[in-house]
Amino acid sequence: MLKKRLTWLVLLLVFTFVGDRLGGWVLGKIRDKSEFRYSRLYTDRAKADILLVGNSRGLPLFQPYVEEATGKTTMNLSYNGLPNYLGVAFVLDYLDRYPAPDVIVYDITICNGGNPPLTIGMGPYAKYSNRVDSLIKTVSDQDKTKRFHVAWQAQKFSHLYQYNSEVFLQMLYYQGKTDKYWLMDRKIPQTMIDNMKDFETIPFSIWPSMISDLRQMVSVAKSKGSKVKFIVGPYFPEYAKKLSNLQNLIDTTQQVTGLPVSDFSNSLRQKDFFADYQHPNLQGSKAYIELLKEAGIFE
Amino acid sequence: MIFNSLIFLKFIAVFGLLYFALKGRARTALMLVASYFFYGWWDWRFLSLIVISTIIDFLVSIKMEETDDKAIRKKLLWISMAVNLGFLAFFKYYNFFAASFHDMAANMGFEPSDMTMKIILPMGISFYTFQTMSYTIDVYRGDLKAEKDWLKFATFVSFFPQLVAGPIVRASDFLPQFQKTHNFDWDRLISGLGRVFWGFYKKVAVADSIATIVDQVWATPDVHSSSYVLVGVILYSFQIYLDFSGYSDIAIGLARIFGFDFPENFKTPYFSKGFSEFWKRWHISLSSWLRDYLYIPLGGNRGGSYFTYRNLMITMLLGGLWHGANWTFVFWGFLHGSYLILERFVGQPIGRFMKKSVGVPKWLWAGVSILTVYILTNVAWIFFRSENFGKAMSIFERLASFDNFNFSSIPNKFLIAKGFLLIGILLFIEVSNFKFHYNSIALKKPALGAAMFAILLLLVALFGTFGGGAFIYFQF
After folding, report:
1. Quick check: is A245 in a domain?
2. For the segment A196-226, what is each residue's pLDDT rounded down to a tens digit?
3. pLDDT averaged over chain A?
4. Residues of chain B found within 8 Å of residue A147, distances taken between Cβ atoms
5. Residue A184's domain is classified under what CATH number?
6. Interchain CB contact of B326 with A (< 8 Å)
7. Which of A155, A203, B265, B375 has its CA 20 to 30 A from that of B51?
8. What predicted TM-score, i.e. pTM, was given to this entire model?
9. What's residue A77's pLDDT?
């Protein structure tokens, strides 16, 4: 009887351990084969003349349109809710791995607070990047709730758990798909426009470390021969008026980095150009990229 | 304390070791202390309510048994009801009735002052009060002997696996189980653990994953496409089922490990072919409670069609109110009452006609019935999930508008795909379990059993939402 129980327990441990390692290995292969932008970044498939970076507001820097407008190859490292510290880490990793791009177009509205869940979710790329690895550790150490700290420790323990995030689902989504599918082709609903009258002012949450990160990025990019172009992408016109400290963000960035910031926050006036308050849609993206081209941002 | 927390893992490990190290009354005392600790971890102040309910019902039932005087027995029963329902009325319903009265008076042209108060709803109050009330009623009816051992009785009221979200266990099922020795039993450990893991899969991997979509849809239904709202509504039907049945699975599994058997609370409810069947498969411990202590005492189906319909409606309205102090819950109960009445009134005759006279094959009619019940259940869930009628109507308006009713207008596709994949795995296992009985396989074939457990653990590791929300039914 005891032997049977021991066998059962040992088998459970073995199956769980082997399953975890085997599953982690298979998912690692999926990660490396995916067309998801960070998979491409870390598997030498991201060489480009123009590097585009932002949070979800960087996504309207739609690669096919930029390439059509400039005739140059592009790589967009933007992602929904991407915090500045990860954006900078990806750019620095890019500069370590590839020939310097001609231009790095960086939407500074990425400087709006942190994103611990997304940072922890980048676990599968920690293997490739010491910067990402140390950011995950920093974020988990700073977590007062201990939730992310436990998640980080669990990632070290379980290889499968590293993939327990939306980042993994994106890796799956991008199997056989490229970034040309990423923009939603919808128009801002009238209800959203109507609701805006109830909005108070909306402040950016700017941390000092965000600005110093930008300074570091500019310094490394310059030393490698890349130009950095800071921009502020378009907001829905009425929404842009509610942003309370955007000008402060622009002024601080210019002051600290010594580079100008091109402000396109109020540049798209048609409501049909927007999917919601903060994101131009496919049509808006095209118009936005034309404006960027006219302003010489890609040069 | 909630099951899906690290502190609970530590708690259950310590409890398990001590439980099997102790015997007799010391073990029962441990169960009681641990249960109070479990509840007090949330807010120790509200332990007093459980203790008062326990003391009153313990004493009342003993006194009740000591006398044959019907009037005294009735008075004693009223004391118990007044205390238990009084707690419920104050903590759960006071603000609801005060606000409703205020609104009604204001609508009639009066200017009443605000009578609402800041009251914290004690976790699981509806569950443990119903559990103790059923005990007192059973003793009053003479269906059950009063428990003379206060330790056992207090443990029955507060046993932690089912204390805050059921199943609502009857004293007649629970108390006799103290007579058994409950030595460590390997088979019980394996089958109980399997049930616990299955509950975690339902809650942590599936319900909490799809909660993100559901919350988004209900937060701002006006700004989403109708196709996304439809996805949200469908996912909510699974979220509520998996969240609640997941809790029941964990509770049943834990109790099994420690030698106790709890009644089943769910039996694949979305495969019901009618609403009377649905209520035999959904939250069974509550529906059977309402049947035994409300519907049948009201007269059940003994007084002809009118009284049957009346009794059904009263039972479902109060069943709705049991869930929460909001008119949307009452309306949810009203809808289910109406469904039950319509089923008896027209559904069953139509079914007989379609099968016998039109010759619709049984399997096809069963499919149509299952789908109809599922859709109507979803209609009711919309009210259940909405904080007010305005929100529920917004959901219906979006659905009926067919605005942007297409695949491309659905955001978060990867998250939705994950949700449906996990639901698919779950439904496959639930349905195939009828044929394969995975529990017996786990016991008979160690390798297969260990592999099944490992797969569940790995699925939870890969897809689980950790640090997620509390169980939905805690608020009831």
Report:
1. yes
2. 888 888 888 888 788 889 999 999 999 999 9
3. 90
4. 466-467
5. 3.40.50.1110
6. no
7. B265
8. 0.85
9. 95
